[in-house]
Amino acid sequence: MADIREITDFSDPELDVYARLTEAQLLNRQNLREGLFIAESPLVIGRALDAGYEPVSLLMERKHIETAAKEIIQRCGDVPVYTAEMELLTQLTGFALTRGVLCAMRRKPLPTPEEICRGSRRVVLLENIMNPTNVGAIFRSAAALNMDAVLLTPACSNPLYRRSARVSMGTVFQIPWTYLSDKGEDWPDAGMERLKAMGFKTAAMALRDDSYSIEAPELAAEPKLAIVLGTEGDGLANETIAACDYTVKIPMSHGVDSLNVAAASAVAFWELGRQR
Predict the structure, then answer these.
(1) Is the sign of the CA dihedral 162, 164, 166, 169 positive or negative?
(2) What is the spatial distance between Cα 10 and Cα 82, in angstroms, rounded to a whole number?
(3) What is the mean pLDDT of residues 215-229?
(4) pTM for the complete prediction?
């Protein structure tokens, strides 16, 4: 039976996870097994549960207990369900809840790149992409457009941050991902060597005149290809581009010089992820 708890005291320590701890504090890089994240909306929470993530507690608008969140509550067993009206919840969390439901969940130990790339044909590598919205959008495109896994450099925004997971529509729980390394100094040199050891050729998405067209047959013919995307604004670092096997450019028209990294990712995944 659900453990429904009406919120009467904002200072309750059990509400810290929703009201007073930042996502960086929840992450707990020193011990990921003790780390938490917040999943938002029944869809995202459901996909996290499908992927085996353990719920700790729920926070939701009262009206959702018997409607939109009813199935989620049942799936979460006897974890506490904190509830109040939307106005009070917005005051507590500091933001409007999407579909009025949050779930605190435990993180899992991350797999190694070798584990998630075993048997993969097309993978994504994100270099220092720090906007959670962009990370979430890239994951959604990667899952939808035939990418097998996502790798991140240490400076990237964490895919389980609330906004990333929500923008991804929960696909961060459906496509395998991990960090290429946990040491910034390992990129790009050691990171590229690690990709090559796994059999991948690398394609840097960059605005260079000496680039291959994204439609080049050489790219489609590669049995294992890692598509490398760079940070917002500056794009990929010069040393990263130099270390890649290919530099790839998306042709533009009407004088447009570039696409947002999330939009560019969708084009790249569609073209390079198709079976030929």
Answers:
(1) negative
(2) 11
(3) 95
(4) 0.91
